[in-house]
Structures are given as C-alpha cells and as structure tokens.
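Message: A physicist's question: would you kindly supply an amino acid chain plus fold tokens?
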Amino acid sequence: MLIQCTKRLLNGLNVKPSLHKDEDPLFCWHANLISLNRRKTIVLVNDKNRYVIVLYGLKAKDFKKLDKLILNAIRETFSHECIKDEVIEEYINRAGEVIYAKTKDKSSVARMNKSCDIVNSYQDSLMNDSIYQSDISKRASRYWVRIRECRYITPSEEMHRDLEVLSGKPIFCCKAAKIKVTLEMKKYKVWRKLIVPLNMTFTEFHEVLQAAFAWKDCHLHEFFIYGNDYENKLFINHPAYHKEGYKAIVNLVSDEEAFDYPSDVEMKFERGIKLSQYIPQYKRLLYKYDFGDGWQHYIEVEKIIDDYDLNYPVCLEGEGNAPPEDVGGEFGYEEFLNIISDKNDPEYEDMMAWGKR
C-alpha cells in the first residue's frame, strides 16, 4: 500500500520516502497532516476513487506505529460501511505492506486538499475518544466530486464498485432491524416502516428519521430507550414518559448543554453510539424532535434481519404526512389545515405560501 505524503507529514513521520512504484491506484493513497481542534489529523484520499479516511488526535507515539493505525482505520471505516469482513481483509492483503513516498503531482495534491476542506467542515462532529473517525470518513466520501468536465462521482459508490470487482462478489452484509415509527398525534395517523442497519449511529438514525418524515433538521432532538419494566410514577409531561408505561433506561441527547439539566434517567451524548449498542436487546424507543412543537415518535422493533445485504436504510411503507416545521404542535397543525382548506379564509394565501417554504 502506497501512502504518498505531504512534506509536513513526512517530517512528522521522520522517514525517508521511497521512490514511486507502478502501483494499482486502488491501493494508493495521498495523505496530508492537518490540525483540527488543535489536534493532529491525517486525511487519506484514495488515488482511484477519492474515498476518504480520517485519523484524528494523533500523538507523537502514534506516528511510530502509523502503518498499523492506517490499516485499522481502513478496517473500521469499511466495517462501518457494512462491508463484509472477508472483503476488507482481501483488500488489506492485496494492498501489501505500507510504503511511504512523496506526493505524486499537483493535481493529486489539489484533490486531497479539497477532501481536507470537507473534513474540516465536520470538525465539530469529531469524536475525541477515538483515532478512527469512521463516521466522518463515511460522510466526507459521500460528496460529489468532479473528475472531468460534466462528470461527477461519489467516492463511496466508486469504492464500493471497486471492491466488488476486487472480490468478485457482493460486498455488503450486516445485521439490521425492521422498525415501525409512529408520530404521536391524536387526530391523524402518521407512521413509517423502515429497515435500518444496526451499525448506524444514532446521529445517522436521526437523519434517516428526518428524511422519512420530511422534517428539515431545524431543531434539537433526543432519544429515549426503554426496557421491559414499567414506571408508574411518571406524569404525562415527564420527558421520559412512555404512553404504555415502560421505564426509560437511557436518554441519548444531541446537545451537550442538555447535561446542565439534571435528570433521573441516565443521559449520554449520542455522538458515536450505534444502534447495535441497544438493539435488539431493547425494542422500544422514543424519538423527540423540536422541543417547542413537541413531536414524539414511538419506535418499535418488529424484526431483526441477520443478513441484510444493503448498507443503507430503506422505507418499506407508511401513512400520512408529517406537519410542517414550526407549525405550533398538533393544535397549530389543525389550525393550519383548517386555513388552507378554505380559500375564503383571509390567511389562506399567506399560509399556503408559508407551507410551501
């Protein structure tokens, strides 16, 4: 595996660069050393498909074992993509030993710098407790990039195709859950049935739910996970209240300021936590979105799929439209519907225009 380094990275490694070899570009990466949140970060960009791998928070001792860290970062990120273990190991074995060289040319460096800019835009989402930033790597690899005039690619899709050619077989397999998500409303039925990979993080799951209900991610959110025990002490306005009386075991929050408000339910910051940490052991969740309007989505795990052959969620079926953002909760939604159903209402035109935003 050829790692073509910037001068700054070579200085950090304190190694003499090897001469360029005629390597398969699938096993060649350009690498840069940058600083994010005042921490040393290495961004690797694949020569063939521009797939991105990120290592974060590196210390001086880590540069002495960078070969191993790079290989592990590739394993971690590919695994997060639901790529089969045997496909990952085939790639690692075919790539061979890690060799460091100088950057190839100005065009390759320019492409690498663009990927570094994308990674930089996610610095607030980096996990401080791990060198391997598989979530950020995955996100940075999903940006469209132009390879020539009027032709664009998505690095992640290109890498998936390259790995399929390399292995000669389908590359995806993971455990997934079939779930039903119901938006709690008294007068309207709004629900979706989804299949979601369990190695997805709760942050990614939030994004899936936003898409499934056509929300626009304008507000804070949180998750509650429930066990099989009942909690009969909670009032209906308690944050952890479940309509069927189940007891919450943990509250996953999306904003660190939430920890400023004590709770009788254990709180965790959701970043980096995967669905598999709680599912299938627990099969009831509550997703809250927009604490002002107070939208509550009850989630029930209906089935576990052991050999899901995709690396992304799918929506199987559903019913009803979710209310628009900032409509004022269920009462405001009902008022909104009444106005837009009456063309003679003095607020009709304004409300129609507002609803189409």
Summary: The chain has a mean pLDDT of 95. The radius of gyration is 24 Å. The chain has nine helices and 15 strands.
